[in-house]
Amino acid sequence: MKHIILLAIIFFSAQVTSKEASNDFDAPAGKSGTAHMVPVDSDMYFGCELDITEYRNDGEWGPSLSLHYIDHSKEEVVAIHLTKSQDDFLVFNVTHREKRVNDYDEKILVLKKISDVISMSMIWSNKVMYFDISDKAGQSSKFFLLVPKFVPEKASLSISGAKGTYSCNDQKI
């Protein structure tokens, strides 16, 4: 009996292994870069906690932080974007883009900037993308988007116009 329990524990832990990566970021406004990227080969959770110490705006470009699930072969992206407005609000949009054309773009949450620690996550499961956003002040939102033909290859965090640290976690589900 002990062997069966041990095998069950080993099997379960092998199925839900979580990978975490943390790093500093320092991205000028107008220069978007990929801070973190992971492969996607099944249903998966991808989330990042961002501790933003500085938002940058160069007059033309403001800060932007995004989580993406990407299918490079079809040039298709499902993403959640965080931007900071000039009147100190954090604005979150969900987009679905094919061949650089927006099929879907919706503002899902506007927060008064109370906390500089933001958590954003996306779960890809059974042709549905689930989004979860929150800050340390308790403001939050959940959202989902049906994407029946989307098959992501990668998930990533992109940053422009901000400085701070991130901690990202990905987990097969």
Characterization of the model:
It is a single chain. The protein has a six-stranded antiparallel sheet, with no helix packed on it. Helices cover 8% and strands 64% of the residues. The protein is mostly beta strands and 173 residues long. The N terminus is likely disordered. The longest helix is centred in the first third of the chain and has 14 residues. A hairpin with a 4-residue loop joins strand 9 and strand 10. The chain starts with a helix and ends with a strand.
Q: Structural class, from secondary structure content?
A: mainly beta
Termini Cα gap: 27 Å
Q: What is the chain-wise order of helices and strands?
A: HEEEEEEEEEEEE
What shape does the CA trace take? globular
Please state the average pLDDT score. 86
User: Please, how many helices?
Assistant: 1
Biggest sheet, strands in spatial order?
A: 1-12-3-8-9-10
- Give the proportion of residues in helices: under 10%
Q: How much strand?
A: over 45%
Radius of gyration, taken over Cα atoms and rounded to an integer in Å: 17 Å
What kind of sheet is the major sheet?
6 strands, antiparallel
Count of beta strands: 12
Pick out the low-confidence regions. Answer: 1-15
What key phrases describe this protein's structure?
six-stranded antiparallel sheet, disordered N terminus, globular, mainly beta, 173 residues
What are the SSEs and their pairings?
Layout: H1 2-15, E1 18-27, E2 33-39, E3 44-55, E4 64-71, E5 76-84, E6 89-98, E7 101-112, E8 117-125, E9 128-135, E10 140-146, E11 154-160, E12 162-172
Antiparallel strand pairs: 1-12, 2-11, 3-8, 3-12, 4-5, 4-11, 5-6, 6-7, 8-9, 9-10
